[in-house]
Amino acid sequence: MSEAVFTKERHIRYFLRCLKTFLPELYTSNDSNRILLAFFTVAGLDLLGVLQSKTTPEERQGYIEWIYHCQVPSGGFRGFTGTDFGTERRTRENEAWDPANVPSTFFALVILLILGDDLSRVKRTECLRWLPKMQRSDGSFGEVLGLGDQVEGGGDLRFCCFAAGTRYLLRGKSAAGLDGVQDIDVEKLVAFIESCQAYDGGMAEGPYCEAHSGHTYCAIGALIFLDRLSNGSKRVSLVSPGSQRYESLIRWLVSRQTAELGEEDDEDSDDADGPAGDDDVQTLTKAVDRLNLDESIDQLSDLPPPTKESLQWAGFNGRCNKYADTCYSFWNTATLDMLGKLPMVDAAGNRQYLLEKTQHLIGGFGKGVGEPPDLLHSYFGLVSLAFQGEQGLDSVDPALCATHRTTQHLHSLPWWQETLTD
């Protein structure tokens, strides 16, 4: 089989189009998440190593100014500028109409770091005072503060990860300059994260829910931000090699790799003349009702065993019995990378899947086989390849989801330079 080719120049052109021209109409419903779209675009060009060469200093400064325009006076960042009704009209009573958003705050900070900003204009103290207000009594985090400082929005592991990430970015090594600023309840957050492990080892959006690769990534990312993976007394059993919880988590993650790609079967395309009529449905229902369980099983067709050729493409799914999806190549490989278990996957199969099945002709990656590219899947496809050392891509910090160059810049900031004191 011929070597799969990574079309770097096409990916560069794809991200540049997304940055400098209008996005397709389908993105309209994501207008309130514009910071997230900006993250994928800017981070994608940085990962491809061309952000500095393909944009001017004036353009990059313009992007920085736009991010700061999204900063809320009382701390944190809004998802886009559309809710900003002006600082002069803002009061304590109406600020819930234009709230800071937990995920947007995290991504805004990372974008600024990617662009080389020193975060000197970030309302660091205000943001870290706002963050504990977003924590619920069970340790989880919401998305925004509503009227009366009520925590609103989802309470799943995504918001836990972004809250922990924001704390990590702004507190630094020693929380320098933050005397008197209340911290979040870290132990409650850790306990909530551990409570989200499902019976099969993966992490769910909340206790007793179905395991999902995206939430699993968020759980482990949050624990990294909270320094719970280092070899110290604070390490939790979920990420402690040898524990039952850890081993079941690894087993679940590795089993997400699949050769079931969800490709369309051309032979079936001409079989259906239209939707089934009522008579057809009733006939089928009666036929099924006449079968007992053993007979029903006997009527099932045999599943053909996988072939050597079919196993050459091995992407990842996010839940049991689902087809492969480009973004899950990221969620799963990133999590395994954070846990030091990335060598356990079939890297060659994942590469073949991404480059031959979802890499698009015009650049970018689609969600699945034959689908058009979009920013989320395009960036996550690149990052998964970067974990595997794809030539032409920079290395990536899996928790921060940005290049190690960005991490190095973060660690050069003043509150990361302070040494811990007894």
Automatic annotation (TrEMBL):
Organism: Aspergillus cavernicola
Keyword hit for Zinc: yes
Domain Prenyltransferase alpha-alpha toroid, first and last residues per copy: 6-401
Family: Belongs to the protein prenyltransferase subunit beta family.
SUPFAM superfamilies noted in UniProt: Terpenoid cyclases/Protein prenyltransferases
Keyword Repeat in record: yes
Cofactor requirements of the protein: Zn(2+)
Name listed for the protein in its UniProt record: Terpenoid cyclases/protein prenyltransferase alpha-alpha toroid
Keywords linked to the UniProt accession: Metal-binding, Prenyltransferase, Repeat, Transferase, Zinc
Source species, domain of life: Eukaryota
Acidic residues bias locations: 261-280
Region feature Disordered, mapped onto this chain: 260-280
